[in-house]
Amino acid sequence: MITVVDRRPTHLITIGQLAAYAGVTIKAVRHYHKRGLLAEPVRDSSGYRRYSAEHAVNLIKIKTLAEAGVPLARIKELLAADADQFAAAMAEIDHNLQERARELRRTRERIARLQSGDRLFVSEQVAAYLERLAEVGVSQRAVQMERDGWILMQSVSPKEAAIWIADNLDAIRDPEFRRIYLEYDAAFAWSPDDPRLDRLAKRGQKWLASRSTRLNGASTPASAIAQLISSSVGASSPAWDRLTEIARELKPLTTE
Fold it and tell me: What pTM does this model have?
């Protein structure tokens, strides 16, 4: 028996075989053609692309560089580079990858600090204020309502919101403010006829009158929050509505 050896210089393969050899998809091969990274072979008499071993080697190089994090826009340059140019380019790419890794770490750290989500939609100052409210014993309901109000304020009027939150962060350090806040929080469940409401409203008015505000004539933070919450998220109670009525009826207090 005579064995016939195929001595043709090149054994051509289909695009599917090429993709399988390199461990990529046919779609990836076509994408590399489109990006000019992999030369397109001539088509045979049947109209099909036929690839050589050289195509397979180049495709494996492209895949290796891409998986190493080299941007596709740089791969063509690297395939044609000499040893020194390749080393310099890889050093630059490595530096860029390290910077991206640092940014990813910073992003992960920010995500880790989100906790219950308070820091996701509000500023760091507002998140700190909300955390302080929870620490002094304010109910979760009230903290959530405050959070919703601050989200709206920061979106509608960011400059004023920045002034208000600075004022509130200063106020929360005042023991009397904290006591009044906790009583307002508790009043949510009171009867609108509760006699404590009148005393609470007067106490709050006295505190506001004695406080030197930095808002230059604008609405106080407390009233701004109440207006936003009541109009936007419908968070109120009969007792709180009554507190608002009493506050409107009270004559303004002034301090010398």
Answer: 0.50
